[in-house]
Design goal:
The chain is an alpha/beta fold. Helices cover 39% and strands 26% of the residues. It binds adenosine-5'-diphosphate and magnesium ion.
């Protein structure tokens, strides 16, 4: 069987997958990004109590918080760990099959970028899900490395590069040099924690109950890490905690800044601790070249300035922060030899 798989391998397109806690992206060599969808699966238990997929990706995310009793919208990798192996496997298979079509001749090589904090058991599960979905070979790459490559940093040189990838569930910080990760740190504080902080804030200060989606939209629309010269504001609808009635409140960017202060402080703190552990030779490079931010969380207004003030170093946002990891993983696809050097599995 594997002989046949290899024989037809040349017919298939090698694939890179950024398996993010919030979004999954798939890139095909020569074609670019072909899938960019939320890492969400909507499942329903059938009569036998067995989970059945109703939707994956955007369609499933649209169901979050709006599902009737028996339907569950799950983010299986929410906190950068695999909370639910079955659902994660279903999601990986779904995306691979969606790209790969129905052709039984097609058996791609796949590079998958996973959160840095995954355990050996979790990495094995990801690898096997992809093999079961028809991959000929699967390579795993660490998120800070993919982010650094995708941000265009010269990871192959004997120079220190510091990248901070702020995703949905985790913030991953890494110092790279000579195609390897010299230091890395992953904390479970990122976009989701900011959303949660906003939910808590509006409840405490306005008695207003809002859902995850409303909080995320507030963060994106008017959220800021620093005081703005011209504050932004918007009207938020939700439920009054005391009266139980539907109501609306005006919320400003200054409220959101206050709301997300603590989680942002934790991110800055993690960055400081990585800098403290960085060997002096590499630290010198970072002082010179600065720090690069990737991931959707880096799009918070003023976050570059906020982090720069916290560590007294220049901070830049990558050109395509939401795509950097996928692009970096795609880049790794054409350098399988480097992958084999740095791959931490097997
Ligand atoms: P992951 O790699 O963990 O899947 P992403 O890098 O895709 O995560 O980033 C998703 C996070 O980025 C979400 O928490 C989302 O709310 C946040 N995000 C996306 N766009 C913006 C924006 N313009 N401003 C602030 N946060 C954003
Ligand atoms: Mg990511």
């Amino acid at each position: 069987m594997s002989f046949i798989k290899n024989l037809f391998g040349f017919l298939s397109h090698d694939m890179a997958i950024d398996l993010g806690t919030a979004n999954t992206l798939v890139l095909i060599k020569g074609k670019g990004i072909v899938i960019n969808e939320p890492s969400v699966v909507a499942v329903k238990n059938n009569n036998m109590g067995k989970p059945e997929i109703l939707a994956v990706g955007q369609e499933a995310k649209d169901m979050v918080g709006k599902t009737p009793g028996k339907i569950n919208a799950i983010r299986p990798m929410r906190d950068g760990v695999i909370a639910d192996f079955n659902t994660t496997e279903m999601m990986i298979k779904y995306f691979i099959k969606k790209v790969n079509g129905k052709s039984f001749l097609s058996s791609p090589r796949i590079v998958i970028c996973v959160p840095y904090g995954l355990t050996q058991v979790e990495r094995k599960a990801v690898r096997e899900s992809a093999l079961n979905a028809g991959a000929r070979a699967v390579y795993l790459i660490e998120e800070p490395m993919a982010a650094a490559i995708g941000a265009g940093l010269p990871v192959g040189e004997p120079n220190g590069n510091l990248v901070v990838d702020i995703g949905g569930g985790t913030t991953e910080i890494g110092v790279t040099s000579l195609n390897g990760l010299v230091i890395s740190k992953s904390i479970r504080v990122a976009g989701d924690k900011l959303d949660q902080a906003i939910i808590n804030y509006t409840r405490k200060n306005f008695n207003l109950l809002i859902g995850d989606r409303v909080a995320e939209n507030l963060k994106i629309e008017i959220g800021t890490a620093v005081k703005l010269d011209e504050p932004l504001s918007t009207i938020v609808k939700g439920r009054d905690q005391v009266e139980g009635i539907l109501t609306s409140v005006e919320i400003t960017s200054e409220h959101i800044r206050e709301a997300i202060e603590d989680p942002l402080f934790e991110i800055a703190d993690a960055l400081k601790s990585v800098l403290e552990q960085t060997p002096p030779e590499l630290a010198g490079d970072i002082v010179e070249n600065g720090i690069v931010l990737t991931g959707g969380g880096s799009l918070i207004r003023g976050l570059d300035q906020y982090l720069s003030d916290a560590v007294k170093l220049p901070v830049y946002i990558a050109e395509e922060p939401l795509l950097a990891v996928a692009l970096g993983t795609g880049e790794a696809l054409s350098q399988i030899d480097i992958l084999e050097q740095t791959n931490y599995d097997d």
